[in-house]
Design goal:
This protein is an all-beta fold. The chain has strands at 6-11, 21-25, 28-35, 38-43, 58-60, 63-65, 72-74, 89-90, 92-95, 98-102. It has no helices and ten strands. A four-stranded antiparallel beta sheet has the order 2-3-4-8, with no helix packed on it. Bound molecules: FE2/S2 (inorganic) cluster (FES). FE2/S2 (inorganic) cluster is lined by residues 46, 48-49, 51, 66, 68-71.
Length: 110
């Protein structure tokens, strides 16, 4: 039984490898990725200029690259590759092909 603080976003089979999807859960923007069969849920808001574009980033070196100006964030930790900023990351549970993400309201790391 999954804790009800986890919200169902979609099915694993609905995600394309390395192609992000955008979700809004309780007013929180989420970027969801499948990379090498791992699922990652990060904030969709880039801390650089607060654009909701992370879902549209490309994947390189286990990072997502913001399409606006190229800041690179580690998919697992959310940390900026060169610098102190970060994207919030959210816990993910997979059950029967369904992806559940625990979204906390605190999403402001800048
Ligand atoms: S808005 Fe993301 S790198 Fe500038």
């Amino acid at each position: 039984m999954i804790d009800e603080s986890f919200k169902k976003l979609c099915k694993v089979s609905e995600l394309s490898e390395r192609q992000g999807k955008r979700f809004i859960v309780d007013e929180t923007e989420i970027a969801l990725f499948k990379v090498d069969d791992e699922i990652y849920a990060l904030s969709n808001i880039c801390p650089h200029q607060h654009t909701a574009l992370i879902y549209d980033g490309f994947i390189e070196d286990n990072c997502v690259v913001c399409p606006a100006h190229g800041w690179m964030f580690d998919l697992k930790s959310g940390k900026l590759k060169t610098g102190n900023s970060r994207l919030t990351t959210y816990p993910v549970i997979i059950e029967d092909d369904n992806i559940f993400v625990k979204v906390s309201k605190i999403d402001l790391n800048w």
